[in-house]
């Protein structure tokens, strides 16, 4: 499935969350990852991230889509993501 | 259609972008808006935002979906969005 993951994480934990997300998804913008991922790997990602975040301060939203057939992506301005400028 | 809009905007312009996005969508997390929007209003939003952003520094990604039938949303941690704590 296709996943868009957006995060808002406290400074102390953000590097660890980024490292974990990066194992499964592509970084596309400050606080946004996306990518194709299996159900099994999405579960793994959620468990790993769940161990890092502070549930009373941090926030992660995961949008998942069984198909991208009905979707479209448009970028305005610069494309920030990619391996090169990844934190 | 359903839209997820993520932004990474320079400090000087961010308040104006937020104000514009808020006219059409709901704020759900730091740098994320979502909502149902007509094609006509999405075009308006893009034009209005396009007048504010610096195309060499800022970045906006707009994911649009003709249906949310094949999608799912999951929130981990706190729910930050909503009118109350909007900037």
From TrEMBL, chains A, B:
One GO MF term: RNA endonuclease activity
The protein's Enzyme Commission number: 3.1.-.-
One Pfam family, short name: CRISPR_Cas2
Database matches in SUPFAM superfamilies: TTP0101/SSO1404-like
UniProtKB keywords: Antiviral defense, Endonuclease, Hydrolase, Magnesium, Metal-binding, Nuclease
Residues in the signal sequence: none
Name the record gives this protein: CRISPR-associated endoribonuclease Cas2
Organism from which the protein derives: Sporanaerobacter acetigenes DSM 13106
